[in-house]
Structures are given as structure tokens and as C-alpha cells.
Amino acid sequence: MLTHEQIWRGVDRLALHNSLTPSGLAKRAGLDPTTFNKSKRITHEGKQRWPSTESISKILEATQTTFMDFVGLIDQEVPVATSPGDMRLKSIRLSTVSEKNFDAAGFPNTNDWEELEFPQIEDTQSYVIEIDKSSKNSFLRSGDLIVVAPSSSVRRHDRVFILTSEATMHFGTLKRKTTSQVIIQPFDDTNNEHCISTSSVLWISRIIWIGG
Using one digit for the tens of pLDDT, what is the confidence trace for 15-49? Predict the structure, then answer.
């Protein structure tokens, strides 16, 4: 049985998963922008207020999310911050990223990282890649921030960051993963899929937020 806290956590994480605020998620679904405001989750009498099944249905449709995927977001260990400036995440510029900046599991492990105050993530194991002018990716613009959660499980259709043994970085949407290859749809080439040999993949980490 889903609890009041879990349902609202799912709404918050669905917004985060789509690089939106809860207000932005409501607007995308054609709802009043204040529908998911935190102030509306508890009444003045202290009673729990639940989102309607209609509003949940609309945000799932607007983000092309199945109900099972929504439940999966609730279970993920990526808590949403409750107030701005709660956490400091490790940050590195894309132009300086190399294999030596990470351990074998894809976590930051050198002193080349800086710290960035980030208001939306409480997962202390997440990190930020700052896109700079060296990026040739038409989807990712200079100044964009990518939040990567190496401790989060990776599922089909998740946005991912992949590093290979050839020191090649890949950003895209995971389409399929087999014993022999990983297939992604690059952010800057949505009409084609890219196949990567599984043997060359050092690790795959889920991207949980992209924004400027």
C-alpha cells in the first residue's frame, strides 16, 4: 500500500526525472501550476491531502511514464531536497573529465573535483558535470549542468552517462542492454541508435537531472 509520503515523493521525483519543478510538471500536464505545491499537501487542520487519481494520470501521460515506472521512482534512493542549498555536490567540467577522475564503480575519486551548491538533490553520492564550450553535443549547451547518480539503479529508457575504456563519454537514453552490447539513443541524434560493446564499458550511471 502506498502512503501519503510515498505518493508525494513520487510526484517530486517524476518532476526531477524530467528536469522540472513540481509546478512545471503540473503545467506540462495541463493542471493548475499550484496543484503540487508543498503547502497544499497538508490542510490547515493538519490532515493529509492526496493528489487526485486524475492528476496522477495526467502527469504520467504528459511524461510518458507507466505506473510501474512511477512506483519505481518512489523506491529509488535519490531523495529530494526539502530546502535550497541543502547539499554540496562534487562538480567537474566536461572538458577535464577522464577515467582517472572516477573509481571502478563510477564514483568521483580524485582532488580534481570542486564543490557546487545544488538545491534539488540530497544524494551525497551524486555529482555534477558542467558542460563547457568544448562540448560538440548540440543537445547539451555550454553552461548546462548534468547531475549523475552512480548509486542509482539504471533502467531501460533512463538517461545515462557512459564511460568506456577508450576514454569516450556517451550521453543518451538507454534503449537496451545485453551481454554483448549497450544500445543508447544519443541526445543529439534522436533518429539513430548507437551501439557500444559491453566489454568496453567501464560503467553506466543514471542521469537524474539536466538543466541550466
Answer: 877 767 788 788 889 998 889 887 788 888 888 99
What domain count does the chain have?
Answer: 2
Asked if the structure places residue 158 within a domain, the reply is yes
CATH number, domain of 184, equals 2.10.109.10
Average pLDDT over residues 40-60: 90
| Count of other CB atoms within 10 angstroms of residue 207 | 24
Domain span at 25: 4-75
Q: How far is CA 134 from CA 95, 97, 131, 152, in A?
A: 6, 11, 8, 28
